[in-house]
Amino acid sequence: RVGRHDNFFELGGHSLLAVQLANRALDLGLKFSAVDIFQAAVLHQLASRVQIDFHCRRPGLLTVRAAGSQPPLFFVPTGYGDYSYVLTLIKEANISCPVYALPWPSFNDLCPLTLESIAAHVIASIKEIQPQGPYRLAGYSSGAILAYAIAQHLLNLNDVVSFVGFIDVTLPAAPSSISDAQAVAEVIFEPLESLDDNTFEVLEKFARQSSVPELLEKARQIGAIVPQLHFGDHALKCAYFHRALRSYRVPSLPIKIYQFYATDPSLDLPSRRGKSSVAPEASSPMRGWDRILSAAAVHTVPVPGNHVTMMSNPENRKALARMLLRALNSVAHFK
User: Signal peptide location in the record (predicted)?
Assistant: First the structure.
């Protein structure tokens, strides 16, 4: 039995479960983020941070801020499927527009499963809120490339896209050739603080010749994870999304993007795979987007911290929020 004095992490929680918990709570109108769980892991402490709004849920999106004088801002999830980061970021910004988070749709109904088909599905939810442009989109980490695909689809519909904000989003120089199971090992298991290097190495090797369900079963057998409701579903969604991401051929679009890049290219945790260097595109302020857009179309904005701490560190997050607000105000005349 779980009580008000129990600690989330002492009960076996970890970063992935924190993301799942925050996202599922948002679906129920309980507003808190994965960052809140890390900062207040005991249940009664976390309860003091929860905002309740049972009327904010709309099909296909979550209302983070309901009112404002400027056009809405729509955020997409990270490559981890996390959209709770939007809450902590927007708390720091005195933003003058409605803000919505766009969870991943059910991938079971999408055929073919491509980033373009995901974007088309998400746009239906966007247009229920805002039938006409100008549209403003943003996202954090690799999942934010979905925002670019949404912009592509909107432009194909002859809509105006006035803002695309990338929070440290790298465009890889070459498409990845890893399998779905390897993607799950990389996206879900590699960042787990509770997983020792030897156990991760076992899973990484097993992923090279296994399916996602087989990899998850192997992880359970060796004690890497405990059976969790919806863990497998979330892992499959991550795999499907990264499959779509790998197959996406990024076009050049007639838009300007804002790249809020982390000034420290390192990560908090050393790579388990022994990578000693950062890819050139990941260390460039433009993060590789100048390969498909002109340098003048990529507005770079430095943010203190690395890819993780620019969002998790309160001071860095406040700086990011200020810079995001400044960028949004600079395009407000498009409304």
Answer: none
Q: Looking at residue 53, what is its pLDDT?
A: 61
Instruction: Give per-residue pLDDT as tens, 247-296.
Output: 999 999 999 999 999 998 776 544 555 554 567 788 899 999 999 999 99
**How close are the terminal C-alpha atoms of the chain, in Å?**
52
Pick the CATH number of 57-171+250-334 from 3.10.50.40, 3.40.50.2300, 3.40.50.1820, 3.40.50.150: 3.40.50.1820
Is residue 34 a contact partner of residue 77, using CB atoms and an 8 Å limit? no
Give the bridge partners for 138, in sequence order: 75, 165
The structural domains of the chain, with segments of one domain joined by +, span: 1-55, 57-171+250-334, 180-245
Say which residues have a Cβ less than 8 Å from residue 20's Cβ, sequence separation at least 6. Answer: 228, 230, 231, 234
* Amino acid 81: pLDDT: 85
Same fold, 1-55 and 57-171+250-334: no
This model's pTM is above 0.85: no
SS3 per-residue string spanning the chain: CCCCCCECCCCCCCHHHHHHHHHHHHHCCEECCHHHHHHCCEHHHHHCCCEECCCCEECCEEEEECCCCCCCEEECCCCCCCCCHHHHHHHCCCCCCCEEECCCCCHHHCCCCCHHHHHHHHHHHHHHHCCCCCEEEEEECHHHHHHHHHHHHHHHCCCCEEEEEEECCCCCCCCCCCCHHHHHHHHHHCCCCCCCHHHHHHHHHHHCCCCHHHHHHHHHHCCCCCCCCCHHHHHHHHHHHHHHHHHCCCCCCCCCEEEEEECCCCCCCCCCCCCCCCCHHHHCCCCCHHHCCCHHHEEEEEECCCCCHHHHCHHHHHHHHHHHHHHHHHCHHHC
